[in-house]
Amino acid sequence: MTGTAGGRALKRDLAVTGLVLLACVLWLAGRIGRDDAAPAALDSTALLGTAPESFRRVTGPEPLSFPRDHAAHPGFRSEWWYFTGNLFDAQGRRYGLQFTLFRFGLPEDALPEGTDFSADAAWMAHLAVTDVETGRFLHRERFARGALDLAGATEQRWWLRDWSARRTGGGWRLAAEADTFGVDLDLRAVKPVVLPGERGYSRKGPEPGNASRYYQIPRLEASGRLRLPGRETVEVSGLAWLDREWGSSQLGPGIAGWDWFALQLDDGRDLMLYRLRTDDGEASRFSSGTLTEADGSFRTLGAQSFSLTPMRRWTDGLGVEWPVEWRVRVPEAGLDLKVRPVMDDQRWDASVIYWEGAVDAEDTESGRAVGRGYLELSGYR
Amino acid sequence: MLTRFVHAFARRQPAQFLLAVAGIAAGIAVVTGVALLRGALLDSLDDAATELAGTDALIVRAERGPLPVPRYAELARMPGAPDWVPVIREAVRADGVRLEAVGIDAFSAARRFGVDPAAPSPAGRSGAPAAGTVARTDRATLDLLGLRPGDRLTLDHEAGPVEVVVQPLDGAGPGLDRRLVLDIADAQAAFGRRGTVDELLAPASARRWILEHLPEDLAWRTADERRESARQLTSGMRANLAAMSLLALATGLFVVYSVLNFLAVQRRPLFATLRGLGLTPRRLAGLLLVESLVLGLVGSAIGVVLGTALADLLLALIADPVNEIYGQLPLARSDPSAGLVLGIVGAGLVAAMLVAVPIVREALDVPPGRMAHERRPPPLARRVVPAASALVAAGAAWVALDARLVAGLGGLFLVLAGLLLVVPALGFGALRIAAAGLGRSLPGHALTLLGAGRHRLAPGLAALTLALALSIGMGAMILGFRTAVDDWVAKLLRADLYVSATTGSLDAERVERLSRLEGVAAVSTVRDLSARDGTRVTAYRLPEAAWGGFQWIAGDPESVREAFLSGRAIAVSEPFARRRGLSVGDELSVPLPLGERKMRVAGVFRDYSTDRGFIAVDASLLGRARGPVGSVGLYLADDASRERVISRLAEAGDGRLDWITPEDIRSQSLAVFDRTFRISWAMAVLVACIALVALVSALLAHGLERAREYATLRALGLTPRRLGALVVVQTLGLACAALALAVPLAIFVHYALTLVIQPRAFGWSLPATLPPAAPFLWVAPSALALAALAGLAPAWRVARRRPAEALRGAS
Amino acid sequence: MQGIRRTFDDGERRIRVLDGLDLEVAAGERVAVMGASGSGKSTLLHLAGGMDLPDEGSVELLGRAIHALEEPERTTYRAAHIGLIFQEHNLVDALDARENLRLVPWLTRTEVDEERIESLARALGVEDLLDRRPSRMSGGQRQRVAIARALVHAPRLVLADEPTGSLDQDTADRVMDLLAERAHDAGAALLLATHSRRAAERCDRRLALRGGLLEPLD
Questions:
Q1: In B296, B327, C45, C154, which residue has its Cα 20 to 30 A from B458's Cα atom?
Q2: Burial B63-78 (b: 16+ CB within 10 A, else e)
Q3: Which residues, 6+ apart, have CB-to-CB distance to B342 below 8 Å?
Q4: What is the C-alpha to C-alpha distance for residues A28 and B121, in angstroms, rounded to an integer?
Q5: Is the separation of the CB atoms in B552 and B603 below 8 Å?
Q6: Which of C79, C80, C95 sits opposite B448 (nearest CB)?
Q7: How many other C-beta atoms can be found within 10 angstroms of the C-beta atom of residue B562?
């Protein structure tokens, strides 16, 4: 049949009809639906990787002075105020806390005239509460331009709109309300300021400018209230940590991301470690850490003096694998720890995608709980 | 194998199959085009808030005027306050296209408009300052403007030209069509807007906070509410469009039916043979259904494509009037969704199947094996008159009992359907009478022979009649409406000159000075007040001479005047009265600057300026709050020359006054009218095109079916020329019959649109004047000329062949 | 008809249907042409009636070379002098029998002779069918009306192409008798194309069409 002239004509006509239909479908497919690609998330590594020439660089140790340096440092590309903490209520239920204020400096030569909205910086605030009992990771992101007092950081107050941390006699009063949850905490420093790196000059790459100014208060006593969805306000108390850092283009080339640990040990010591990951997934030689003794004295740990080994990965809804469980060894401090998340899903799903969550530390050998802390994983995709 | 049969047949009659595809495509194209257009009118109507602040965004504005920036800053820092998105909106033009420049604080928006702190700078500016102000918009708008990312564009703004660099906003929805998003800092600077913003957007979650904490002097509403009011504004226009598209589809289906029917008749011998060879009725039915499905699929697909292109064309036609009249920006281009396309293609397939059902039933009646003669159906009239009467009665009852627009359109639909049922009987009856009158002349024979094919020609005749009636009726309505508007404007404008301020309004002192101008006998003033709920109140101060401008639809002119001038009563425009269900003597709470006041409606006047309607009050009711007025009418003394007054105005106004003569207002109004009704004209032309398809399909079907008869007549001795004349007489006869029936039907359509649909859609009534003759005079000759042309082609084909060939070909 | 050649082109090859054929029919003579299907009988009749033109040769009727006539004379001449009967589809469905009989006078623009119509109808036994439409007649009735129509304008030649081809034997016999008799009565010559020997027997002369040429039968 197919060999006959009629069969050939049939085939040809069917093909023509099919082509007409296909052309219509293709044309329509091109017209249907706007391109609804979601805007790509911000890349945290890129955020810290480069900065225009007009920004100041951190190039060497400089003495810090307080409260002056609690305030923002205009002229630098990026700066943050970073609280994390582990809290418990009267029933012993566990909560994780994160409050961060990010400042991104804008080139001042591009500020327009004749407007009320001229801004020297863009501000971003992240507030998160991990409710271990219900397995919820509550988080909320806000932005504001650095104009009209919508956001800022002075010696006395760090704020974005109505979220703020006000300086009190011994620390800060942190108050931030999101739609369904909120925090109102009194944070009292129980250790003095610690200066990681070379007296607060924290090198992260080969160039002198690949560095940040870094100070931290690794132990603050927290007490106050959490508001949680569907529940009464709960009274909580625990320990918090403050990290402060600013700089421009602090990450050197070839850095894919970082893994950052802030552990508060039951014996009174506090351990901060970060591993800068190269594009090959190796630890950069600029990885570093700080060990603070119970009395507040501290020493810097070089890249060679500790090792961080991922033990378990958690895969999120996007298919990204996050190494949420680690083995942490600091031989010179006699530490061989297993670090486990209080729950796996503490991933930020906002403009910046990263994992920031409460963790437990236990002694690898005995399995005994020896501390708690926070883990930050960045640059995974 | 069966496919082969169908295919072999299709190849022998490609014209028929193409015609069927064309019929479906034409109907579907109009439906698609109009559906998309409706969406384009609606979807973007202020959907920008959703794009900027998320679904169900809330919009906060000051009661009057813009919001001072310090207020915004204060609101933004209030405890628990939402992340407001401050917005500035400015009307601009780019290459004559109306656009809206939207300045937003990108850092607050739900979407990040290119805000990437890692980039050298945030929204608005890109890297080097020299690059200039960045305006972001979606790809559809870039296409509309013919721009590529990075191109420079000059925006015409009332404060002067603004240079921007356009960048695409990927992932933007249609809400940003015809909108350029700028950083609010750039927008303030470029448009001279330092100090204020127009509105604040907040996400839906902020509703509770707003309810509890929003200061009294601020008003808020949801984007949905805003869209809803836009929906109401344009509902008349959209309903009319929808009705027209359904009628177009119905006409298209008539065409398809007549073509498919004809195909079935031509293949009766084939079906008989196949049935004789053992083809079961079920498979024959399947064969025919598959065939119409394929035709339906191809036709629908082509129709959807054409319809999308059509929607873009129509959108270009109406974008300006929609912006002008409703203050809304339609989409930059139509936005078909997969659901809509599938729905329409599905509807096309279902329609094709439904049309095929009677044809299948008839084909199954073909007895196997031999050429059956057609059953003779009972005379058309007897079958259809009851059904037709029922449809007409139902339609009329619906219109009479239900005052809504949908009832008006539905009723019109039913009545038209009923009338169409009797169209073939009437048409062929008329042809029979004409044939009898013409006796044994060639035209007489031609028409007799035409009558023999009436069962085949009936759908085509009905489609042709409907399409002709619709295009004529719509044209008549538009022209009649235009005349009514022209009369109304001419009567309304009593003053010799109208004066307004170049920017802003005229204060009392200026009005006073105008009234003292030499040669000015009296002045009238008009001040528009808009209440919070959108009710428009217009305060008039009218001299004696101005009163004649009102045309009273209800209320005794003298008593209205007395009550109105004394401030005891108000008058309302007709659309307002209709929307609120008001009549003379009713009480109405009128929002006045000094507070709400209950007042009696003394009269209802004719007005075509806004279909929202408005309340007219005497200026004395404003008390001391008279305030600035929008425009002033100057009534000149009898001996004063307008030129001289104008030159005095120029002196006194020192460049801050604008004036216009009533003649100019009138011509401008008509220009706006014509732009507004472009879409209706476009619809009328579309329907006329479908009429053409109907005509050609009916005649082609007729010509092909009669080929055998023509061949016999040729053999018996009809000369080629007389045969040609015979065919042309037949096509002309058919067109004449359709026209003769279309004329009364068109008059009916004209009155239905004028007296029922217009008032229900827009709230205003039109004087029930005779339909203008022009559309009849345009359509009738073109229909006849086309009919003659359509007849000449088959006539020439038949005449050219030798009779022996024709006999062989036709057997 | 002299030296008639007619070739058809069916797209792939050329078929010579008539190959130098000669035929003369005297006034009032009844001639039957027999032959297998596809032998060219219909073509011969079409050529004889001026409905088709020969590639070569001449066709004369009453002394006029109809092949050389231009339209519309050829058609008018045919209408005036020739009566036609086909196997089927003789009658115009839209018209009743009487109107069908009036069709030829109308075409030739001559007066309708109502008496002649009546008498012919009587002679053919269809007087009761005159107000009926063809679709409501039997096959035999239709062919009888067709004979009447072929004779109504007193043609000099009747061309009949398988007039009984779709009828049963008895009806065919009766129709054929009527055709032969009435044509004779009307003084018209008859050229009959048929493959039925029984039909041919009613004629004065029988010819066979073979290989594009005529040869006498019997």
A1: B296
A2: eeebbebebbbebbbe
A3: none
A4: 38
A5: yes
A6: C95
A7: 13
Is the pTM for the entire model greater than 0.90? no
B23 close to B259: Cβ distance less than 8 angstroms = yes
> Shortest CB distance from B716 goes to which of C52, C107, C135?
C107
Tell me the C-alpha distance between A58 and A74, whole Å: 13
A225 or B467, which is more confident: A225
Sequence-separated (6 or more) residues with CB below 8 Å from residue B423: B461, B462, B465, B466, B741, B745
Using an 8 Å CB-CB cutoff, list chain B residues near A24. 301-302, 304-305
- B628 burial level (CB within 10 Å; 0-12, 13-18, 19+): middle
* Chain segment C136-181, per-residue pLDDT in tens: 888 888 888 888 888 888 888 888 888 887 778 888 888 888 888 8
3-state secondary structure of B506: strand
Q: Is B134 helix (H, G, I), strand (E, B) or coil?
A: strand
3-state helix, strand, coil in chain A (%, to 5): 10, 50, 40
Contact B7 A118 (CB under 8 A): no
Please judge whether A35 and B121 are an interchain contact, meaning their C-beta atoms are less than 8 angstroms apart: no
Confidence band (pLDDT; 50, 70, 90) for C117?
Answer: confident
For the record, the structure tokens of C25 come out as 């029919």
B504 sits in which H/E element: none
Question: Between chains, do B803 and C46 touch, taking CB under 8 Å as contact?
Answer: yes
Contact B564, B570 (CB under 8 A): yes
Size of chain A, expressed as the number of residues it contains: 381
**Is A187:A285 a contact under the CB 8 Å cutoff?**
no
Percent of chain C topping pLDDT 90: 0
C131 pLDDT more than 90:
no
Give B379→chain C minimum CA distance, Å: 15
What is the Cα–Cα distance from A246 to A98, expressed in whole angstroms? 18
Q: How far apart are CA B677 and CA B671, in angstroms?
A: 10
Write phi, then psi, for B654 (nearest 5 degrees).
30, 55
Pairwise CA distance, residues B780 & B798, whole Å: 27
Q: Are A185 and A99 within 8 A, CB to CB?
A: no
Interface of B with A in 769-788 (CB under 8 A): none
How many Å apart are CA B285 and CA B288, to the nearest integer? 5
User: Quick one: average pLDDT of A217-225?
Assistant: 95
Produce one character per residue of B177-193: b if its CB has 16 or more CB atoms within 10 Å, e if not. Answer: bbbbbbbbbbbbbbbeb
At a CB cut-off of 8 Å and minimum separation 6, what does B128 contact?
Answer: none
ipTM surpassing 0.85? no
Q: Which amino acid is at B694?
A: A
CA distance B472 to B494: 35
Residue C75 has its nearest CB partner, among B452, B709, B719, at: B719
pLDDT tens, A152-173?
999 999 999 899 999 998 899 9
Q: Judge contact between B800 and B744, C-beta under 8 A.
A: no
Q: Which amino acid is at B204?
A: A
- b/e per residue A272-311 (b: at least 16 CB within 10 A): bbbbbbbeeeebbebbbbbbbeeebebebbebebbbbebe
Q: Find out whether the peptide bond into A67 is cis, omega within 30 degrees of 0.
A: yes
Three-state secondary structure call for residue B632: strand
Q: How far is C51 from chain B (nearest CA, A)?
A: 5
Q: Which residues contact B738 (CB under 8 A, 6 or more apart)?
A: B427, B461, B464, B465, B468, B695, B783
d(CA B538, CA A269): 78
Contact call for A and B: 3+ CB–CB distances under 8 Å:
yes
The answer to whether B572 and B615 have CB atoms below 8 angstroms apart is: yes
Residue B497 has which token pair? 């000159």
